[in-house]
Design goal:
Length: about 300
């Protein structure tokens, strides 16, 4: 009995911290949404970050370990040519056909977007990330020579004011403790009328996807760290961006249903790298079973991804 209680304690503690962490995030979102002015929202966000972030982090906001993920990232997150073209088309529609437009890909990882943006759109691209392991993978690629790679912490960029025409971020903001500060940094380094583009899976779009359905532990994690579209637009507005708008794209991420299982086996989302081995195994079995019973279900093939843009 004593042994059972002792061995269950870490699990109990972890669950309590998760409840505290989710509650704080929900309270923070509520308070921010109710704030009367951008100045007030900024002040509230700072106070939350200053006093509550240490508690929240201690409580188990787990951070993806990109040092460990880096060498399998490109296989796990490979993107079809069709999807790459879709995103490049959207980016060039928003930014125009300006050769040498100065674009920062913030949280660029292994250069999944920075390289084709430089190569095919002809923009002058800087790829910045806090992870030297991810940047090492980016630098290994031949076409990566067209991009300038920088180690940068997104909440305190070393670039001077007004140094870029555009900033692009893909799947970054849910990884940082102070997303508003990142958006404010983007505002600072963009020239007047410069454009910020944020590509991400909003919580309302991912909460019922196959990963969240079959690996239920990741829903707690993503509820705590992943914003809604409304929240991202609010950050943009608070940071001073104008003409903020969002569009959500349903993309076919997987060519066939078993591909989703194969990618899940590689833990293709950061949330999947953060759950225990037993939760992972259980989820994988449930996903495999569903796929073999429902091989024609289109829900298994698609994902919803949002692009929010704003003008400095
Ligand atoms: C999911 S990956 C996305 C990589 C790339 N944008 C893509 O779509 O393939 C998230 C990236 O954000 C980076 N990152 C996380 N927190 C960061 C921070 N505070 N400052 C800079 N980069 C950060 C990670 O190192 C990682 O490379």
């Amino acid at each position: 009995m004593y042994y059972a209680v002792i061995s269950l304690m870490p699990m109990f503690a972890e669950s309590c911290f998760e409840v505290v962490q989710v509650s704080l995030t929900v309270i923070k979102r509520g308070v921010l949404n109710g704030s009367r002015s951008t100045g007030q929202a900024r002040a509230i966000d700072r106070q939350f970050s200053r006093y509550l972030s240490p508690l929240v982090s201690f409580g188990g906001v787990k951070k993806a370990n990109y040092r460990r993920i880096a060498n399998t990232y490109d296989i796990a997150r490979s993107m079809s040519e069709e999807n790459l073209e879709l995103w490049l088309r959207l980016i060039s529609e928003k930014l125009g056909d300006h050769r040498n437009l100065k674009l920062l890909d913030l949280g660029c990882g292994t250069g999944r977007f920075s390289i084709p943006i430089a190569d095919r759109l002809g923009y002058s691209v800087t790829g910045a990330d806090e992870s030297s392991a991810m940047l090492r993978e980016a630098r290994k690629k031949d076409e990566g020579a067209q991009v300038k790679w920088d180690i940068q912490e997104a909440t305190s960029l070393s670039y001077p004011v007004e140094s870029f025409d555009a900033v692009f971020m893909s799947h970054l903001l849910h990884h940082v403790d102070e997303p508003l500060r990142v958006v404010e940094e983007c505002h600072r380094i963009l020239r007047p009328k410069g454009i910020l583009l944020d590509r991400y899976g909003a919580i309302e779009d991912i909460h019922d996807d196959p990963e969240h359905r079959f690996f239920p532990r990741i829903i707690e994690l993503d509820r705590a760290r992943t914003p809604t579209v409304e929240q991202v637009e609010k950050w943009f507005g608070t940071a001073g961006f104008k003409r903020v708008s969002s569009e959500t794209i349903e993309q076919r991420t997987f060519s066939y249903v078993e591909e989703r299982v194969k990618k899940a086996e590689l833990r293709h989302t950061s949330a999947l790298t953060l759950i225990s081995q037993s939760d992972f195994k259980q989820g994988l079995e449930a996903l495999r079973e569903y796929v073999s019973d429902n091989p024609d279900d289109p829900w298994l093939l698609n994902d919803r991804i949002t692009l929010t843009i704003g003008e400095r």
